[in-house]
Design goal:
The protein is an alpha+beta fold and about 350 residues long. The chain contains eleven helices and 14 strands. It folds into two domains: about 130 residues, 2-Layer Sandwich (60s Ribosomal Protein L30, Chain: A), CATH 3.30.1330.10; about 190 residues, Alpha-Beta Complex (Phosphoribosyl-aminoimidazole Synthetase, Chain A, domain 2), CATH 3.90.650.10. Helix 3 links the parallel strand 4 and strand 5. The chain starts with 9 loop residues before the first helix and ends with a helix.
Length: about 350
């Protein structure tokens, strides 16, 4: 029996998931595939973009987070999120107030992105010690202008926005506050870190970059920034080289990760957007992100060569990253539960 938590490894996905997808349908332009964020279905003049994502490790703001995380993966296809279907699983015997809180969060987040809740499922489950939500988000995009993870081309530059590990930083500051306080992290820093949760949505910047004409976009979630970059590289079949010294890592993230022994580049990273685009479109991207007030950095390049991710670390090492990057938050939650 495997003791791993978090995303299933790519070799198991290929063996047990991607090989078992029911009947073939020519309308499926992008189906289950490594690193790809959402299914893309050909509907004639437009495409339908569909994505499902669970929230299993966060407790605070779980309903709000479920909406934005799922909608992010629709937006990186260049599609505006329009419809939501949450599956809400509650612990057995939990008070009605928990359901009230979760659904109020879902309603508020749905209004923030302009999407409608059109279905789903809700139940109490035995042997569950925390609420879990699996959210499906659906949107549409023009037939000739959708974006995929695996679209990076040699010569592209690699952009990131906002910062690495934003979601994970906010979760750690909330769910590990006692451990961080004991380690000497000031409460005012934790308060700033918790506020990162309000930056999780990347819908506006993803749609803006789709208009610019990027070749690929990706939402780095489990496995963090390096996990997202690896998925982009291997999905595209390209060599991606990035430089740690160029990456955006906020001081609050660095302090919290240092206190808990976490690599901020491998910490769950919703809120950060990865994109690759031709160098000649860099000015247009800068203007689009500037109009939205979104901080960004150019952190690497896409090159010819065997597919993979090369990370040039600040200390001079060059790290080769495989297709699977272990999620730091999942590791911490697992070790905390084992104590």
């Amino acid at each position: 029996m495997s003791s791993e938590v978090g995303k299933v490894r790519p070799d198991l996905l290929a063996k047990f998931v991607f090989s078992r997808t029911g009947v073939e349908d020519p309308r499926v332009l992008v189906g289950p595939a490594y690193g790809e964020d959402s299914a893309i279905i050909d509907m004639g003049d437009f495409v339908l973009v569909i994505h499902s994502d669970p929230i299993t490790e966060a407790v605070g703001r779980i309903g709000w987070l479920a909406v934005h995380v799922a909608c992010n993966d629709v937006a990186v296809r260049g599609a505006k999120p329009e419809w939501l279907l949450p599956v809400i699983l509650l612990p057995e015997g939990c008070p009605d107030g928990l359901l009230d809180e979760v659904t109020a969060q879902i309603d508020r987040a749905a209004r923030e992105v302009g999407a409608a809740v059109v279905g789903g499922h809700t139940e109490r489950c035995p042997r569950l010690d925390r609420p879990i939500i699996s959210m499906t988000a659906v949107g549409t995009a023009p037939r000739d202008r959708y974006v995929i993870t695996g679209g990076a081309k040699p010569g592209d530059v690699v952009l990131m926005t906002k910062g690495a590990g934003l979601e994970g930083t906010a979760i750690l500051a909330t769910d590990f506050s006692a451990e961080l306080t004991e380690a000497g992290v000031p409460e005012e820093l934790l308060e700033k870190a918790r506020a990162f949760m309000s930056e999780i949505s990347l819908v506006k910047e993803a749609l803006a970059l789709a208009e610019v004409g990027v070749n690929s976009m990706h939402d780095p979630t489990e496995g963090g920034l390096l996990g997202g970059l690896a998925e982009l590289a291997y999905a595209s079949g390209r060599r991606v080289e990035v430089w740690e010294e160029e990456m955006l890592v906020r001081p609050e993230t660095e302090a919290i990760c240092r206190a808990l022994g976490v690599d901020p580049l491998k910490l769950i990273g919703s809120g950060c957007l990865l994109a690759t685009l031709p160098k000649e479109k860099l000015g247009d991207a800068q203007k689009a992100l500037g109009r939205l007030g979104v901080n960004w950095a150019m952190i690497g390049e896409v090159r010819e060569g065997p597919p993979g991710l090369l990370v040039h670390r600040k200390d001079g090492r060059t790290e080769r990253i495989g297709p699977f990057v272990e999620e730091e938050l999942a590791r911490l939650v697992s070790s905390k539960g084992a104590r």
